[in-house]
Amino acid sequence: MKVCFLGGDLDTKAGWGRLAKEIIDGVSKNGIDTEVINLGNNLSMSFLKMLWLALKIRKKLKNCDIIHCFDVFPWGAVGVLANIGLNKKMVINGVGTWSVLPLYQKKNSWLVSWAYKKADKILSISNFTSNEIKKKVKSGNMEVVTLGVDLEKFKLCPPKKETSGRKKIVLSVGALKFRKGYHVSIPAIAEVKKHYPEIKYRIVGDQSGLKYFNELKKLVKENDLEDNVEFLSGLSDQDLRNLYCECDLFLLLSINEGHSFEGFGLVYLEANACGRPAVGTLGCGAEDAIKDGYSGFLVPQNDIKATSEAVLKTLNDSKLASEMEHNSYLWAKANTWEKTAKKYVDVYEKLIK
């Protein structure tokens, strides 16, 4: 069996890029012959450009049994156009924002809806993403296959030990943009500081969104957190794991902006794999990444009070923290990339029977 994957640059610093690489590597290890076709990352691609790309790749697709597109726009649209007359089995991922937003864009909605309806299988990475697609697309071919974590790359850290005077550390990982909710987590940490004056809050992520970054730095100053908050970027996976090990709790408060949302949240599982519980938000893909009350906590979006209470609940109770560290690792162990890849292979095999 040969699967042709359509996507953009496999930049593993981006969530979708890591998703794509892990799935390609995973199914390859399961004996699937793969070919990756890079269509670029142009999210404003015109219909004529998509049509041109579709014609360009048809020859390669003739040798494939399955065409797997890592998102519906623009790659799924290109794939479906290229598949006219080839009649290969089509798989399209439902990931996040760009799996849903084009359904509400006048110039793209018809093409994206048609692409979804032509897919033999729509594999969403979370129930939230799947339900958002279902609001605009009626299809009986949808299935949810959640993402995974690499337990070798993000190895279990030693348990946190309570020692006199040890500073509590909270960690966030994600690009500095509104959708990641740092404008909520920073004031929440200010509330936590009332109980833990020397708390450290480390925020790791791309800082190219300068307007929002400057707003966050202003917020840090307004909340008297200059000695508590640290912004970091450009770290290796090993450096990142070290930060996971040093922290007591992982925090990322994803916020929906219209049809822009968190499709899953790989970083929650990465923190769990290192044995650190995670706090995320309800009403997005984090609901599948975090097992509420087990591997972490889910709080309402834009809720500073609920967030600070969830953080304090873990920091204040060493027994609970120890239990959640253990549970977090078990949750990560149940959600590895190997298991995700096997589910994809099962889908492929059913399609070509």
TrEMBL record:
Record domain Glycosyl transferase family: where: 160-329
Gene Ontology molecular function, alphabetical: glycosyltransferase activity
Annotated keywords: Transferase
CDD domains: GT4_PimA-like (cd03801)
Top-level taxonomic group: Bacteria
Residue ranges of every copy of the Glycosyltransferase subfamily 4-like N-terminal domain listed in the record: 42-153
The protein, known as: Glycosyl transferase group 1
